[in-house]
Amino acid sequence: MRPRHACDDVRRAQEFRAYVAGAGGRLLHTATLLTAEPRDANPRAQRLLTLALARTYACWDRLHGEDPYDHTRRYLMIRFALSTLRYGGRLPFRPPPGGPLAGLSPQERLILVMRLHEGIGEDQTAALLGLPTERVRAVQNRAMAVVLRPAPGPAPALGRAGTVPS
Amino acid sequence: MNRSNREERVRRLMVTGPPALPPDLAAEAVRRGARVLRRRTYARRVMWLLLCAATVAFTVWALTARPWVEPPSGTTPPLTGW
Q1: What angle is formed at CA A120 by the lines to CA A89 and CA A158, rounded to 5 degrees?
Q2: Which of B20, B22, B32 sits opposite A54 (nearest CB)?
Q3: N or C: where does chain B have the smaller number of CB atoms within 10 Å of the terminal CB?
């Protein structure tokens, strides 16, 4: 029994390391966009990704042909959504915002990253987040408007926290 | 500016500057994942052990108590007037 298990462990770890070496960079980029951290100082994104990858490693033998990238990405998104829910959309500490999505709320970042960076369909995004499709579309439109605003000043970003989409 | 054009611009904005992957990230994930696997194995073992113990206990109890045998009646009226 014991040698067979050890052999399984070694094989699984080897496959997993190869997978992380291939897909880790892109996943970390996605996580860093979600947490809106600067690209050189992203401890929160790294922690998020580590937990999602650990989950994928634990389920590695039961994926049965499912794409591990899909698996990790789904848990990354779910974990980020839950962590923002827990703090009511605001983080208890204020990290220095960085990256292109710094002026957005967590939900706007999540939807923008899922739809545009990861290319997940509108219906699938809505199903994963438990929101109506129209709401996903509205949030995405608003987030794109904020990101593409020609002169992004600090004042509108601060005033938008409690606004209702019109 | 139409929608697909705007989407393309936002997409291009997000693609710039991917962060460098820290070298110990995979090792840390393997360590945590292996811990989860070990805990699952342990939990499964404990569950089987409990199940076996419960089966043995039930069998022993059934063989000693024999609940299917009709108990001797304790409410027979006394025979008097013979």
Answers
A1: 30
A2: B32
A3: C
Domain boundaries, chain A: 2-150
Cα maximum dimension of chain A? 65
Write down the pLDDT at residue B42.
Answer: 97
- Residue in B2, B9, B14, B39 to test binding to A, most A beta-carbons within 10 Å: B14
Mutate to test the interface with B, among A29, A55, A113, A120 (most CBs of B within 10 A): A29
What's the count of helices (H) and strands (E) in chain B, helices before strands?
2, 0
What ipTM was reported for this prediction? 0.73
CA dist., res. A97 & res. A101, Å (int): 9
Asked whether the beta carbons of A109 and A125 are under 8 A apart, the reply is no
Three-state DSSP class for residue A31? helix
Measure CB to CB from residue A25 to each of B21, B29, B40 and give the nearest one: B21
User: Domain residues of chain B, as ranges?
Assistant: 23-64
Question: Helices A133-147 and A122-129, interaxial angle, to 10°?
Answer: 110
Do residues A105 and A89 make contact, with C-beta atoms less than 8 angstroms apart? Answer: yes
Please write the tens of the pLDDT for every residue from A102-141.
778 888 889 999 999 898 999 999 998 888 999 999 999 9
Contacts of B45 in chain A (CB under 8 A): none
The CATH class, in words, for A2-150 is: mainly alpha
Q: Say how many CB pairs under 8 Å bridge A and B.
A: 92
pLDDT for B6 equals 84
pLDDT winner (highest mean) among A39-43, A104-108, B27-31, B45-49 = B45-49
